[in-house]
# Entry
Amino acid sequence: MYRVWSVAHNTFIEAIRDRVLYSMFLFAALMILSTLVFASISADQYNKIVKDLGLTAISVIGIMISVFLGMGLVYKEIEKKTVYNIFSKPIRRYEFILGKYLGLGSTLLLLTIGMSVILLLVVLYTEITHGGMIEFYYGGHYYAQFFKAVYFQYLEFLVLIAIALVFSSFTTPIMSVLFTFLTLAMGKFSSDIKLFAQEVESPLVGYVTDFIYVVIPHLDSFNVRHEAVYGGEINWKLIFYTTGYAVLYTLALLKLSIVIFNRREFK
Amino acid sequence: MMLKVRNLIKDYKTGFFRKKVRVLHDVSFSVNEGEIYGFVGPNGAGKTTTFKAVLGFCSITGGSIEIMGKPLGDAELRRHIGYLPENPYFYDYLTGEELLRYMGGLHGISGGQLQKRVEGLLEKVGMSKDRRVQLRNYSKGMLQRIGLAQALINDGDFLILDEPMSGLDPIGQREINDLILEQKREGKTILLSSHILYNVEALCDRVGVIIKGRVVKEGELGELLKEIQTDYELLLDGVDESIRERLDGLDITLENKAGMVALRFNEDIKPAVLQRVMELKADIVSLQPRRKSLEELFVEETMKS
# Structure
């Protein structure tokens, strides 16, 4: 376990010493702050605008960081031949994959917390300046919805890192980005694919579409921004099932990465 | 025996049509405990591929590899191995100290034990002063030294060093040489490859010459050199180059050396040459066997192949 922790720690250090990460975080902070401008011209909808746009900013930047840091997670180690140093030590390949995943997962956790804190401060600021914190006094429910949305968002990042890791373990970073974004796009429209499968007349196309629906990640299940902003329900049952789905899907992807990586030769 | 490689074959598949290319044909050699074994050969001969196979970085097509009597594939065996890759690239965002901590962590070493080892190794390779400098700012010599330190982090019994002197200036080479000899004195077994043959000659107990994926010579360095140690040099004073005519019929080469004449000849004709020179009443300054270097052996074997 200490070996997994060592790889995770190094992956985390690598990410937080990467200037690209800081640029992206800065960009996210600016996007979140810019919601204040939209809030100022939206009359009584200010808090909804801030939260909606702010959560969207967290989602977009988080996805970009997951994909761009995830794309070279394994490939870079092979290309730069650092694998020779790693695998001359008594570490197993699965430990390396797990360490890489946990390292990037921790980086995303830190970033998600950072972006959420900025958004929360912006939300509080708009409420104080506009409504004297009226909504704040509604208590837990309002903020619980916010945190639930952020939690769902983080689950999506975790699944995305695992997808990027699978591609990174057998292809180049450019192809990895391409494949990950393709999977992301399909995942975002997974409910539409299900609908299409139900309505299509040809049984063959129906089976194929059904298969695609089962295999692709249902990333749209992680989007509860509408519920968080406009007061929909995000109950514990939904949280439980979505978490379970994210965990199982991630475990399957990690297993796939390990199988692929085990077969790789370091030339 | 520390390492036994028998009839090792390695094929790679390359290109779109996955064409099979054989890079190791029939490599056999063994490394005894406590010795320094030098693996020499021209570029592309298969030295690094052999090391990669030994460390399990790639699968093998045929043959067998045993480390400490155990077959390859046991990750736990690597607890006893230290490895320095050729032209090592390390994580340039880490400092020297962080790299050693990371590499120690991969061996499962932690806490006070890791701290102690890191401190000791930084001291040993003379990097204590630069321990907090990021590796991107290290010179080639510093990288090589920190590379050697990471290979020693587990205090393993078996060191595999791929071109440890590569790119170093003479002082850097001397430092690495001394570190390697120190490891031998501590009882470690060392397998190293190098292009710098006089270093191999100075360090190694036994040598294997690999050319085009085949080990063409293997044995104790002294024995291997003795096999081709047949030349003698006779230094004469009071004669000039016209002596060649008087030694007609003998296969000698002649050279002017600091106002004297140096005759070089094969061991077989030594008595005949000496007899002729005595007859000429030439002043013999010295008679020395000309010990061929590993470089000459290496060139000879490469030309043969």
